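Weekly modeling sync, notes
Attendees: S.R. (lead), two postdocs, one rotation student

Agenda item 3: backlog of single-chain predictions. S.R. asked that every request posted to the team notebook include the full sequence so nobody has to chase files. The rotation student volunteered to paste the first one in as an example of the format we agreed on. Action items at the bottom.

Example entry:
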Amino acid sequence: MKQIPNIFTLFNLFFGCIAIVLTLQTESIILYSNEEFTNSFNIPEKMAFAAFFIFASAVIDFLDGFVARLFNVCSEMGKQLDSLADVVSFGVAPGVILYQFLRISWMREQNGLDIPIIYLLPAFILSCSAAYRLAKFNIDTTQNYAFKGVPTPGVGLLIASFPLMLHYGGGLVDINQWLINKWVLYSLIIILSWLMVCNLSILSLKFKDYTLKNNLPKVILMGIAVISIPILHWLAIPVIFIAYIILSLFFKNKSIT
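Predicted structure, as returned to the notebook:
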């Protein structure tokens, strides 16, 4: 029984590995060209499938803690294993997605197929930041109802939403050209990496009690999610992520735990 939570955690890792494999199988990218070079493209469906596996990892990441408490088998090994799995699923796999997005962005430019690989490697700054964030979390016992820096799964899910928006659409708003803009991608890598390793006080979604006063930002975030998902579809994920950061900063000095 004591190994059941660890098996759940290993499924998190397993799904993350599948996401990496699917993201790398993108040889079928199609660029449509006109006289001004390229104006559109078709993202491979496998990359969208990879995103779904990252979301599956997030579900498992939530359930393994619940299962551990259910069987009363919480252990230091389980904590370390959970972080190792998260590095792959929410650090390496999203880094590979960003690597491919940068490749697509450069491919859309003239002579883009000949760019040095060093132009694509900044994608893995995010992976390294995720690993640092998780290591810092493991040795800090104070992050129960507030985090220091944005949790790695949140950033991983944000990146996972990108191929889903490109493949299935972003609801009422079309941001495809932004998602495949190399300067936007480089900026996102820097911002998201900093958000993970910084010491900003970020809300934990754990409920300490069930009073409205102590859970107001979580209730507001849930309301934003309920409203935005039917309207914006996959674009709702970046909206929820931004709202999460804003609420964390706004309620930082409020009397809410």
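Discussion: group reviewed the output briefly. The first strand starts at residue 30 and ends at 34.
Action items: rotation student to repeat for the remaining queue; S.R. to check formatting next week.
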